[in-house]
Design brief:
The complex is a heterodimer of chains A (106) and B (409). Chain A is mainly alpha-helical and 106 residues long. Chain A contains five helices and two strands. By secondary structure, chain B is an alpha/beta fold. Chain B is built from seven helices and 24 strands. In chain B, the strands form eight sheets. Chain B has a five-stranded parallel beta sheet, covered by helices on one side. Chain B is globular, with a radius of gyration of 21 Å. The chains are: A mainly alpha (106), B alpha/beta (409). Bound molecules: flavin-adenine dinucleotide (FAD). Residues 8-13, 34-37, 43-44, 46-47, 77-78, 104-106, 129-130, 160-161, 164, 255, 257, 289-291, 298-301, 303, 333 of chain B line the site of flavin-adenine dinucleotide (FAD). Flavin-adenine dinucleotide is lined by residues 8-13, 34-37, 43-44, 46-47, 77-78, 104-106, 129-130, 160-161, 164, 255, 257, 289-291, 298-301, 303, 333 of chain B.
Chain lengths: 106, 409
């Protein structure tokens, strides 16, 4: 099931879990709006460090990284990842980065 | 002579050995299987040990009972695979070369991955039931326990048999009721998932069972450490859950040998093609069972469905044909729910567990996502099938790929 959301007069297709259907529609404003939906009022530099890492990983590997991988490679440790993206860093950061739901999350 | 080496003689390795031994030409192929242990453990049986339903001897048999004659059996620990050289180095300095390799080294628990888990309380107030040692220690503990807070916690996904922790709390409810102390035991199921299980429909239905059985559920709890002094588990966002006894499902990882070989991901699981079951980076290496990184359940029933697919693709690969058999992620799990009943789920990569009926020729339909006595017998029967059919590579009356027959959308 897909739904649509309007952000900055741009109409976005979303999948059943709220992830963007089309990665190309993603930009900084969209990220900000998606973050708000997840209860994150403003994206800081530390958030962006993680988001950019997520997008780079996805481009290279074709899948969003797991929380373990994020801890190892993003430059942000597990504790801070949970503070930045409460409850589910891997899932939330992927969503805000405009990526599909990580395949490992079953 | 062409050489096939199988690493690991657990559920998946033993099954593949028997299947391929039956079809490969003995004058052309030499088959070798390697394992560090001589005892085969029926791991699904570990669940029943803490509740005194099975004992140690109900879940073990010598591995050699399941090896066909004529294969070379090596009892040693694998040090590493050198996939570039087509060889395997063993800890006893023996080197095995291969033309084809099947990796079936499974997954195991790593409590060391969580801070404080293996400190003072390990196997005193903190137990696992994913090893024979843990399950037996927990049985001894429960025998004399007079009640208190029982916390069952999944550290992180993926884990083997993702329904086993739920079965554990259902059985605990039943066991402490029979002991007459259920009112003194607070059972608390604590999971990093957003619900009782991984898939939405099943998660909702299984969540209702928890409520009905008076089992508390805390979701989206990711454990950071164990506080041994306070006897509490603490999440990354500093929420504390106190326990008198903690039953943990620690981080599950592939074997260190996979890490040493440079063939694994961050959990030592091997990147594997989810349909062909060939290793993503090596054309002459196949992977089966818990050792893969596939998004299917890590379960014996899944390994069984994979075995049929792997066999076909292996035969195609060695004969230079295209691999056409495709694994669909099929899983079929009996969930023991206590008081002599059980629940059955059947699903694959694309179809989540649905309610309805599961037809089984000759035995009759089982109910899906419903608690019945019949499903409990299914679970009991599984052990018998495991030893007598599954490990020996014999056919079971269940299709490798999932069917929609009987399922309600
Ligand atoms: C508590 C519990 C309950 C379960 N319940 C169910 C259930 O109800 N239904 C179900 O279908 N499944 C269940 N499972 C899961 C099932 O047991 C596993 O999915 C299955 O055994 C996987 O088979 P495998 O061959 O991949 O790994 P394993 O059977 O674990 O075999 C791996 C083998 O590799 C060997 N090995 C690994 N590394 C090395 C090394 N370096 N050197 C030498 N040898 C090595 C090991 O010694 C082992 O023999 C349960 C598991 C547990 C723990």
């Amino acid at each position: 099931m897909t739904t649509t959301t309007v952000i900055d007069s741009q109409t976005l297709q979303r999948d059943a879990d709220g992830h963007l259907e089309n990665m190309a529609e993603w930009n900084d404003q969209v990220a900000q709006a998606l973050a708000l939906e997840e209860g994150i009022p403003a994206l800081t530099e530390r958030h962006w460090l993680v988001i950019n890492y997520m997008r780079k990983e996805f481009k290279e590997k074709g899948d969003a990284p797991s929380i373990r991988k994020m801890t190892k490679e993003s430059g942000v440790d597990t504790k801070e990842l949970y503070a930045l993206f409460p409850k589910g860093p891997a899932k939330k950061a992927a969503k805000i980065a405009g990526l599909p739901k990580p395949k490992g999350c079953i | 002579m062409k050489k096939l080496v199988i690493l690991g003689a657990g559920t998946a390795g033993t099954m593949m050995l028997n299947k391929l031994h039956n079809v490969l030409d003995k004058s052309e192929w030499q088959i070798t299987i390697v394992d560090q242990h001589e005892t085969h453990y029926y791991q699904p049986g570990f669940l029943f040990i803490p509740f005194d339903i099975y004992t140690r001897k109900d879940v073990i048999k010598p591995k050699r009972d399941f090896f066909p004659p004529g294969v070379s059996v090596v009892s040693a620990e694998i040090d590493r695979i050198e996939p570039g050289q087509n060889r395997v180095l063993l800890k006893n300095n023996v080197v095995l070369t291969y033309d084809y390799l099947i990796v079936a080294t499974g997954a195991k628990i790593n409590p060391e991955q969580t801070e404080g888990m293996k400190d003072g309380l390990w196997h005193k107030n903190i137990f696992d039931f994913y090893t024979i040692e843990g399950a037996c220690a927990l049985r001894r503990f429960f025998k004399h326990w007079e009640g208190g807070k029982l916390v069952v916690n999944i550290t992180e996904m993926p884990i083997k048999c993702p329904v086993a922790p739920l079965e554990f709390v259902f059985l605990a409810d039943s066991y402490f009721t029979e002991q007459g102390i259920r009112d003194k035991v607070d059972i608390h199921f604590v999971t990093p998932l957003p619900g009782a299980f991984t898939k939405p429909k099943a998660s909702a239905i299984l969540g209702d069972f928890l409520a009905k059985k008076n089992i508390r559920l805390t979701t989206e709890f990711s454990i950071a450490r164990v506080d041994n002094e306070k006897k509490a588990i603490v999440s990354w966002d500093e929420i504390e859950i106190p326990f008198d006894v903690l039953v943990t499902i620690p981080t599950n990882m592939g074997d260190e040998a996979i890490g040493r070989s440079g063939m694994g991901d961050e959990l030592n699981f091997i990147p594997t093609d989810k349909h062909t079951l060939r290793a993503q980076n090596y054309d002459n290496v196949f992977v089966i069972g818990d050792a893969t990184d596939l998004p299917s359940s890590k379960a014996g029933s899944v390994a069984h469905f994979q075995a049929d697919i792997l066999m076909e693709n292996f035969l195609s690969a060695v004969e230079g044909r295209n691999m056409t058999a495709s694994f669909d992620g099929h899983a079929n799990c009996f969930i023991e729910s206590g008081f002599g009943k059980g629940i059955l789920i059947d699903f694959n990569y694309d179809t989540e567990p649905l309610p309805g009926k599961f037809p089984l020729p000759g035995v009759g339909p089982f109910s899906l996502l419903e608690e019945t006595k019949m499903n409990h017998y299914g679970k009991v029967m599984f052990r018998w099938m495991y030893w007598n059919f599954l490990l020996k590579g014999l056919e079971l009356p269940v299709e490798s790929n999932m069917t929609m027959a009987g399922k309600r959308m």
